[in-house]
């Protein structure tokens, strides 16, 4: 399967984005009548036929639609403090999209080492990972969000905060019910502040341990996501 991004999956025809058009026509040397698969990242996968092999705006005819392609009956949201090294967060975004995630929120906390990000680059990485893993839904990547703003918004029933402070903490296996939506908070290298932890607990977040090893922020985030996906598929 060769998957390309289009402007839409509605209507009888669609147009590949400029970068996708160039890749399809200049690099892969596809031509009229060749069949490909396309998506706009909205969850619908389409089988399509090239009608106009234009390297700047390749047009296709939609032959078959597959709505909710590979859609999961639960939503996983990871809110993670941006790492000082951009490459580490980019690595997490790539792997998280490949594994399967619905939303990523760069979380700004008291001990955050970085508060600005290149969202365009992160979205390009997410798009590439979506295509590579043959998915039809592009996860949402929020702009950097203060933890207070995130906590003030709508929260799922399953709310989990991973921290290293003293006190009782349970494992993800103990706290998560497969098939349910979940929000997991991952703090910066300096961990959440005591006030931030207390605020989370007051809002019904369950404290989580990810084991005895000390994990980097991006490793902890991927560990949490992988565990939730394993629990959902086991």
Explain the overall architecture:
With 234 residues, this protein is an alpha/beta fold. 32% of the residues lie in helices and 24% in strands. Strands 6, 7, 8, 9, 10, 11 and 12 form a 7-stranded parallel beta sheet that branches. A 5-stranded mixed beta sheet has the order 1-3-4-5-2, with helices on one face. Helix 2 runs parallel beside helix 7 (217-233). The longest helix is centred in the last third of the chain and has 17 residues, at 217-233. The protein starts with a strand and ends with a helix. The model has no long low-confidence stretch (mean pLDDT 95).
Low-confidence runs: none
Strand portion: 15-25%
Q: Specify the helix fraction band.
A: 25-40%
Q: Count of helical segments?
A: 7
Structural class: alpha/beta
Number of E-type strands: 12
Order of helices and strands: EEHEEEEHEHEEHEHEHEH
Oligomeric state, counting identical vs distinct chains? single chain
What is the distance, rounded to the nearest whole angstrom, between the alpha carbons of the first and last residues? 27 Å
Can you give the mean pLDDT? Answer: 95
Large-scale geometry: elongated
Major pleated sheet: 7 strands, parallel
Radius of gyration: 20 Å
Secondary structure layout plus pairing:
Blueprint: E1 3-5, E2 13-15, H1 18-27, E3 35-39, E4 45-52, E5 59-66, E6 76-80, H2 86-99, E7 103-108, H3 119-132, E8 140-141, E9 145-146, H4 147-152, E10 158-162, H5 172-175, E11 182-186, H6 194-202, E12 206-208, H7 217-233
Parallel strand pairs: 1-3, 6-7, 6-11, 7-8, 7-9, 10-11, 10-12
Antiparallel strand pairs: 2-5, 3-4, 4-5
Helix pairs in contact: 2-3, 2-7
């Amino acid at each position: 399967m060769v998957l390309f991004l289009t402007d839409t999956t509605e209507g009888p025809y669609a147009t590949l984005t400029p970068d996708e058009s160039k890749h399809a026509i200049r690099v892969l040397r596809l031509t009229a009548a060749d069949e490909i698969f396309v998506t706009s990242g909205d969850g619908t996968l389409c089988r399509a036929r090239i009608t106009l092999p234009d390297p700047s705006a390749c047009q296709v005819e939609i032959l078959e639609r597959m709505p909710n392609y590979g859609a999961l009956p639960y939503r996983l949201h990871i809110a993670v403090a941006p790492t000082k090294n951009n490459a580490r967060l980019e690595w997490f975004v790539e792997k998280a999209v490949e594994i399967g995630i619905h939303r990523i929120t760069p979380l700004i906390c008291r001990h955050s080492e970085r508060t600005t990000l290149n969202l365009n680059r992160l979205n390009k990485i997410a798009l590439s990972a979506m295509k590579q893993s043959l998915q039809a839904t592009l996860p949402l990547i929020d702009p950097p969000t203060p933890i207070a703003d995130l906590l003030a918004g709508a929260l799922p029933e399953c709310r989990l905060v991973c921290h290293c402070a003293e006190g009782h903490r349970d494992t993800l296996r103990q706290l998560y019910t497969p098939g349910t939506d979940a929000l997991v908070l991952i703090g910066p290298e300096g961990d959440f502040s005591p006030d931030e932890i207390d605020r989370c607990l007051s809002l019904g977040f369950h404290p989580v341990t990810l084991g005895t090893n000390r994990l980097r922020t991006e490793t902890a985030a991927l560990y949490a996501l992988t565990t939730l996906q394993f629990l959902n598929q086991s």
